Amino acid sequence: MSRDTRAADATHRLVPSPAGRIHLVEQGSGPLVLLVHGFPESWYSWRHQLHALAAAGYRAVAVDVRGYGRSSRPQAPDAYRMLDLVEDNVAVVHALGERTAVIVGHDWGSAIAANSALVRPDVFRAVGLLSVPYTPRGGPRPSEIFARMGGDEEFYVSYFQEPGRAEAEIEPDVRGWLAGFYAALSADTMAAPGAPDPHFVGPGGTLRDRFPAGRLPGWLSENELDVYAGEFERTGLTGALNRYRNMDRDWQDLAAFDGSPVTQPSLFVGGALDASTTWLADAIRAYPATLPGLVSSHLLDGCGHWIQQERRDEVNEILTGWLSALPAGTTA
């Protein structure tokens, strides 16, 4: 089956949530596995996993996070707090007639999945984290940390946090910007070591200045890029970028969970060439304390950031193996 049609027999649904409605794509039957994407993606980032998990006997459900795709896009910037996204996930589980689920996230979805498990352990009985390690809430206000990074250059998170600024860069050419962003963080198209870092903006510049041009990563076809671009051309980028603009609010909202571990059975899979894993290597080393329920942890050699698409077969094997090994009742 080609990669463009692996999820062709999946079902699209809209379900009520605190955001308004959440769009999801569902395939298979069995224990519920909720899949949460990151930036700048959509449910479509899980197209290879939907098929594989369904074939392994699971009810695989990939959502469009609020602000993305066909899910509701609240106007208020502060409607994209982490606790709001947690409650969206709870609402999806209940709307599907289930009481509990395993939750798996990539990139921002990894943080959303970890916090869903942390805040609502009654609903989320196991958690899988892809690319971005779990780091408990703590330390200084996030905006203060990001402002100190990069010296004369500006860290991309700070760049994204200013309303309208990143939109002005991206929205005139969504498809071209996405192609460059995906390529910049993919193993086969990322810049050589020592080249200017695409996670930082030079003085007076843009993120796109440092993106590779002219070649898509091997995991992404022109048709697949069209799917991603078509969604963001329709919705704009503000809903997606509002996640970055709520990090200080999250820091306040989650104060009661300062330093808290996620204790459910867990999984981590990262790419060895992904800045998320190299910058946060200390977070991975802290897993015995922060993820005491960790079942297995994997760093995939020669892999970049878009892990479940760059290494779809390997990630599918890891996910299905982990799910099958969870204690009885965890996925029920």
TrEMBL record:
Q: Which GO terms describe its molecular function?
A: hydrolase activity
Key word Hydrolase present in the record?
yes
InterPro entries named among the record's database cross-references: AB_hydrolase_1, AB_hydrolase_fold, Epox_hydrolase-like
The residue ranges of the AB hydrolase-1 domain are 31-308
Q: Which UniProt keywords apply?
A: Hydrolase
Say if the entry is tagged with keyword Acyltransferase.
no
Output this protein's name. Alpha/beta hydrolase
Organism, as annotated: Streptantibioticus silvisoli
